[in-house]
Design a protein that fits this description.
The complex is a heterodimer of chains A (337) and B (166). Chain A is α+β, with helices and mostly antiparallel strands. Chain A has helices spanning 3-17, 251-265, 269-282, 294-297, 307-321, and strands at 67-72, 87-95, 123-130, 139-144, 147-148, 160-162, 169-171, 180-186, 195-203, 221-229. In chain A, a hairpin with a 6-residue loop joins β6 (160-162) and β7. In chain B, α2 (40-55) packs antiparallel against α6 (150-159). Classes of the chains: A alpha+beta (337), B mainly alpha (166).
Chain lengths: 337, 166
Amino acid sequence: MTSATRTLVIVAAALAARDAYAFPTGLQFDLDPVMNDGAGGIAFNGAPRWTNHACDVCHTNTPGIIGLGLEADHPELFTTGWQGGMQYHLRVQLLNEWADAQNQKAGDNCGEVVTPYLPCDQNGFSLEIDDLTGKPQGKFVPVNDSACVNSGNAPTDVDAYVLMDGTAVIHNGAHFGMISWDLCWTAPPAGAGLLTAYLAVVDGNGGDGTPNFPANTTGDDVAIGALPIPEVGGAAPPPQNGGCDAGGRAGAGAGVVVAIALLVALRRRRARLAALVALATAAGCVHVRPTERETLARRNMKFGPDPIEDELDLHMQEAREGSQGGYGSSGGGCGCN
Amino acid sequence: MFRSDPGRRGSFGAIVASAFAACSGVQNSPAPDPAAALSESVFDCSVQPILIRQCSYSACHGIAGTTGTGAPLRVYSPGKLRATPAMTIDDLIVPLTMDEQHANFESAAAFAWDTTSVDDNWLLRKPLPSSDGGYEHKGGAIWQGGTKDTQYVAVRAWLTNTGSCP
């Protein structure tokens, strides 16, 4: 082997070592992570109970071009709020798909069932709806032929897979080329208060384009969002810092959640204008990825990383400049530094 | 000079001899291997599953290297980081090899080196909520239940050699 060849092999090995399989089926989110390449029940939708971890813990270096949306058959769900015990037909949407989008129309006519091999457009989502304590609320069921599967076993080819513990709903992975997924959610009994829908979608790029890796975690795109859903007659959603509670991985993704939820629901002109203002403020939000949190986690990122040192600094500044106040008390002392 | 003064010659010899004597006893004592004091079987049954489920993702500890995007804790797992680069999906998702499991053990055990208090071991301390003393973990508070979190308890039991396998 020449040295140039050896170098190429090493580079290829290094690149391959960074690849991962992703979870192309919902079932994998329930499987054991040690024995079966599963997620062990973690839904990766950005909810607090997952430490806000979402699909981007694996799907890295994503450009954030895609958006996401959440629609309801009763759009007032997003404005006046949810009714206790009422069942809603929801639709999760992947917007602005670009990764492997050229194969989206092929649907299931892809992979090794066609010749030559055609990469399958594998996309996915994860959704859960939690209360203010971070506890999942309501009940999810899949949809079959536009009807909620409230009893009996759902066919294996439905769009959505409900986690075994019922707390989140994921793409089932039975079909390819999907950019929207239908599911049903029954609201909890009245009194649960303000809820938040945590949603993440992945735009898959068909793996490495060969049958060897029909799915992986590189070259994909991710959008993450959180949408407050008030309870009918309950308190309004708390004020948001620039709409950031609806923040997605990119501002555009978050804006789409707000836009679809509000523009579908609101038909009056003034209400639509308010929705557009909300969209504009949400566009300034950025979801901080796990890989980007190191700097934020540092002690010196706190406003008062070391209160005792602050006191000393202020004490010296006051003695030096003959000034006082403006930053709180600097404590006592004689002014001798 | 020394030839003309036997007394001085003797003093010089004594100085040289004492200098050598001072140097000859110096040795670097080897650092204790923290892994030697920890149970690998308890790690395999009660700690490794936690690390794979919580930590092994590509943006976290499922990546090789200790600089840049890498991290000192390296976790091999099926479907993600493998010691031998997989050429196909099937290679990627096979169960961990013995070598990979041992590497996971060594990587986690290394955090016990030079730690005076087990509670300050970074495996335990960093992923705690800040209200429980956690700090500077990129991935946030993984032990969400604080020091009573079952995962925290399992890792601590391994580090204190009080854990056991079912």
